[in-house]
Please model this.
Amino acid sequence: MNQKQLAYFLTAYETGNIQAAADKLYISRQGVSRALRQLEDELAQPLFKRTVNGIAPTDFARSILPHVRQLLSEYDCIMGTQTLAAQRRSVVTVYALDHVAAWLGADFFLKFHEAHPRITPSFIESTDQEAADALAHGKGDFAITTPPFNLALFEARKLFDSPYCVRMKSDHPLAAKDVLTYTDLDGQTVAGKGRAYHCFREKIDHNVLACGLHLDILAETSDEAVLTELAASGKAIILEHAYTATLAMHPGTVLRPFSDGKETSSAEIYLLSRRNQILTQSSRLFQAFLLDYVTRKTETQR
Model:
């Protein structure tokens, strides 16, 4: 008994016709019949009865059908695992806070490919907590996220700072200020990535709601196109990281940073790897390239 015989049996069972099974499998009618006879000989049981319209399964065939389906499913899983495992050595998986890949830009990926053509960086966008959780569960090689995170589980390397800011229509009353405080948000209609993200939740909880200020939260979404439209239309002001805001600026909108009175409110973006886990050569090369690239990128932006 082999995978091919089982696949032919299942197709014949589902089509109820030898010729239809052959057509679906792109083989000859004789090839299907031969495989079924071999399977019947091995099992010592008839599988089909001929009818006017084709073939009908025997009671024995009906009894083994769920097992055949399960076995073929397991074959598919095994083959899929083998394929992914073969590729895994040259794929570096990064669970990243959304839009980090866009901030790095196409130039990053082009230059990395030029330097390491046999390694593919695979970025999966997620929230900050989901990125850390995915890394902790071994789903990826790295996470790019913001604090807090468990330093007993992760090694953290800082990538860059990103001010927390407001994006708004250029004629909005708050646009007249160079720097905003959180009290300026009182009574405003806002939108942003939302409570699924630590930075949004922390800033709103500690600096707005805990201080007795009121917000009308119109929407929570990571879709930059929606946020851009809301800001440009003047229907809401957008609370977000500066690195994402600068990717989707509309000509009629402006950015204003937050300050607590002493310094600008900002978030730190980190590259995490699992502590006490030896990185593959591909992962080490990716990490070194990323850190160097970000260092040069941030220096040119100063």
About this structure: DSSP finds eleven helices and eleven strands in the chain. The first helix runs from residue 3 to 15. The two ends are 68 Å apart (CA to CA).
